[in-house]
């Protein structure tokens, strides 16, 4: 599988979370503790929204940087993380579940101002792929550039209305995958933790058809983050609304991280954050 993180809050340099914590995402690329694999070396990617959006009502298209080598040895990633500052970014380290190690298969995936990344898989994906691909809206299909189930899930969610209703679209995507799998006799087809953002809000989903989902955690408060990383001056200046969502914790301070409950999603936004139930529904409505 894979490991990922998503950050929303006061603008910080990417290296503050990618490299500096004791169990940073880069450390997890070699020494993951909670994933299906210890090593996640089949590529990486980061996507970020600029520090200056051009005003509170305007969100520009995010930037994406992806590579096919292991994150721990990529000097370009290290240089970029040292220089890029962002109030909302996502990062992903990949362990392929069978599709090719190539740049177009590395997360995050981008469409217009939207970013999407995924940890998990669709079981027996080659058997289901044709039916799933044919459900993608014809206007979106040309933008699929890779061969992963993760990217196809993104474009199915876009087809089912992601730009208007994120939770509803992801629920319809999951429901459609499960319905398609049932027609082909594939049991428990979907395993996913997903992060998606349009630059203002951040959604994180934890779900699997067998109700045994991969790990996902969110930071409890900025005070806990400061206690976890007292050496980090960026976090001392972070706003009260700063949040981090991770596949596995960046450190071991008790109480600093809470698990996202099974079959739930979290939304991080200005004001009140929320955790709500996630329930797949008919995708081809």
Automatic annotation (TrEMBL):
Alphabetical UniProt keywords: Glutamine amidotransferase
Superkingdom: Bacteria
Q: Does the keyword Phosphoprotein apply?
A: no
Tell me the ranges covered by the Glutamine amidotransferase type-2 domain, including all copies.
Answer: 2-271
Keyword match S-adenosyl-L-methionine: no
The name of this protein is Class II glutamine amidotransferase
